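Fold Annotation — chain and its backbone

Encoding — discrete vocabulary of local shapes
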Amino acid sequence: MIQIQDLTFIYPNGSRIFDSFSWVVERGEAWAVIGPSGCGKTTLLYLLAGLRRPNTGQVLVDGEPLVRPRPRTGLILQDYGLLPWATVWDNAELGLQIRAFYGPDGVHTPLDEKLDDDRARVGRWLERLGIDHVARQYPHQISGGQRQRTAIARTLVLRPDLLLMDEPFGALDALTREDLQNLTLELRAEQHLTTVIVTHNIEEAVFMGEKILVLGQPPNRTVTVVQNPQAGGAGYRQQDAFFARCNELRELMGEDAHEMA
């Protein structure tokens, strides 16, 4: 589904983050991306979202060069990105309102998009995510977990096939974080999503990613992948294999793992 080919990305200040970097994500895969601060995790996610452009090389999604954000890609951010003056319902409906404005043009809105069920779609997702009872409240009136569920609802009502997440659970308490991790995996299976989650947390990477991309200090030139097929399994967090995979990542990352602690 995603092909990064010989990508080089350099910030205006001259910092080279990726240098002739190539990477492939197949449809339906669940990836976690991990590495120390400043290694390019979020930059990579923004390149996949079409929010940044490479200096050289290219990003392809479904064989098409990515030159702008695509309508079937969903992006969930750590700070939720909710409009503070809008209710939970209005925040969840925002993307559909934007699509209705442009219509099915194939750029902002998929050509096969039907917007006649938008209110029913929003209602179904708020109920599915357990926040329908706060639909008329504002972001400052609800918990962090409910705000993140609102951000997830806003994304999933758009029926994405690719879901990108940037530290989506980092600001939440441990129990809420685990609950939303489980929910995300459940929704991924239901919706047949390809997922890429950026995280600084080793345990989260091991639980969420069937494949884990490990980035190092930039510039990143080679791809280091840890295979983790048991990710998301029932009770995986309590299994010896989980702790062994976490230790494998720590050893692989070496000193970088201490920077993330």
Observations:
- DSSP finds eight helices and ten strands in the chain.
